[in-house]
Specification:
Length: 328
C-alpha cells in the first residue's frame, strides 16, 4: 500500500509539472505579447485543457493529506505563506482566463492578472522545490524554521529557473498547437529560453557544489543517477534538431522528457526520504488500514478515471488551433 501511494503521488506531481507547466509558461509568454489576435490564439491553445491540468495539483495535495499526513503537516507549516501566494496566483489567472474576453475597457486588468498570476505561481513552485533541495529545518517530523525559514538565495534562484523551464515548455506547446506568426514567434523564443535554462542549471550546480548540499553526495553513492542527465542531454539535442528543422510536434515531447528526467533525478536522489533528509516514507505513511481504505475508492476508481479523462481530453483536442479576437 505504501509503495502504491508513493507511485500515485509521484505520477500526480509529474503530470502536474508537465501539463500545468506548459500552460503556466504560455501565461508568462502571454505577458510578452501585445497583439490581441496572437493572445487569442495562445488562449485557444490551452482553453480546453488548462483547468483539468490543475486538477493534478489537487490530487497530489489530497494524497499527501490522506496517505502521508506527517509530510503534509510539515510542508504546509513550512510553506504556508508561499502556498497562499501560489494559490492566489492560480485563482487570479483562472478568473482572468474566464473574464478577459468579456471585458472591453478593462481587459488590460485581466491580461495583467493572467500573466502575473502565471508568473507568480511558477516562481513560487520553483522556490519551494529549491527550499526542499537545500533542506528545511525539521525536528521530530515538525517544521522549526519560522515563517521565512524556506527563503534563501538558492530557493529564489530555483524559482527563476523554473520560470525559464515552464516558459520553454509553453513555447514548445505553442509550436505544437499553433500556426502562422504565433508558431514562428515561439520558434524564435525557444533558443533564448533554452540558453536561459542552461545558464540556470550551470549556476545551480556550481552553487550546490560550493554549499556542499547533501543531495550531491547521493550522486556519489548512486552512480546510476547519471543515467537521467544523459537522457536529458539526448532529449535536448533532439529538441534542438527538431527546432532547426521545424518539426512542430517534436520539441514539446523532448522538453517534457527533459523535465521527466530531472524529476526522476530529484525523486531518486531523495529516496527513501519524502522531506530530505528528515522524514522517510515509512515514517510518513498512514496506517495500513487507512491506505487500504483509500485504495478501494480513490486508488482503483478515481485515479484511473482521471488518467483516462486526461488522455481523452488531450486526444479530442489534438491538432492545430485558430481563433479570432472575439473568442477562443
Amino acid at each position: 500500500m505504501v509503495t502504491f501511494w508513493v507511485a500515485v503521488l509521484i505520477i500526480s506531481m509529474l503530470l502536474y509539472v508537465l501539463l500545468d507547466g506548459f500552460d503556466l509558461g504560455i501565461g508568462i509568454l502571454f505577458g510578452l505579447t501585445r497583439v490581441e489576435i496572437k493572445r487569442a490564439i495562445m488562449m485557444s491553445a490551452i482553453s480546453p485543457i488548462w483547468d483539468g491540468n490543475e486538477t493534478w495539483l489537487v490530487v497530489a495535495g489530497v494524497v499527501l493529506w490522506a496517505a502521508f499526513p506527517v509530510v503534509y503537516a510539515a510542508l504546509f507549516s513550512a510553506f504556508y505563506l508561499p502556498l497562499l501566494v501560489m494559490l492566489a496566483g492560480l485563482i487570479l489567472r483562472g478568473v482572468a482566463f474566464e473574464y478577459r474576453h468579456k471585458a472591453e475597457r478593462m481587459r488590460w486588468v485581466w491580461d495583467v492578472g493572467f500573466a502575473g498570476g502565471s508568473l507568480v505561481a511558477t516562481f513560487i513552485q520553483g522556490l519551494m522545490v529549491g527550499a526542499l533541495v537545500e533542506g528545511l529545518p525539521i525536528a521530530n517530523g515538525q517544521y522549526t524554521g519560522g515563517i521565512f525559514g524556506w527563503l534563501s538565495p538558492f530557493a529564489v534562484l530555483c524559482g527563476i529557473g523554473l520560470c525559464f523551464g515552464y516558459t520553454l515548455l509553453g513555447a514548445c506547446w505553442l509550436v505544437n498547437k499553433c500556426e502562422g506568426e504565433v508558431r514562428d514567434t515561439a520558434y524564435r523564443q525557444i533558443p533564448y529560453l533554452a540558453i536561459g535554462l542552461l545558464v540556470f542549471l550551470v549556476v545551480v550546480f556550481a552553487f550546490a557544489l560550493f554549499e556542499d548540499l547533501p543531495v550531491l553526495r547521493r550522486w556519489v553513492d548512486r552512480p546510476y543517477l547519471f543515467v537521467f542527465p544523459a537522457i536529458g542531454i539526448v532529449a535536448a539535442l533532439l529538441a534542438a534538431n527538431s527546432v532547426r528543422r521545424r518539426h512542430d510536434s517534436v520539441p514539446f515531447f523532448m522538453v517534457s522528457l527533459i523535465f521527466a528526467a530531472a524529476f526522476a533525478t530529484l525523486a531518486l536522489s531523495f529516496w527513501p526520504y519524502m522531506i530530505p533528509f528528515s522524514v522517510t516514507i515509512k515514517d510518513a505513511a498512514s496506517p495500513h488500514s487507512t491506505l487500504a481504505f483509500l485504495f478501494w475508492f480513490a486508488g482503483i476508481i478515481v485515479f484511473p478515471l482521471m488518467l483516462i479523462y486526461t488522455a481523452i481530453n488531450l486526444t479530442v483536442f489534438k491538432g492545430k488551433v485558430s481563433a479570432s479576437e472575439q473568442h477562443y
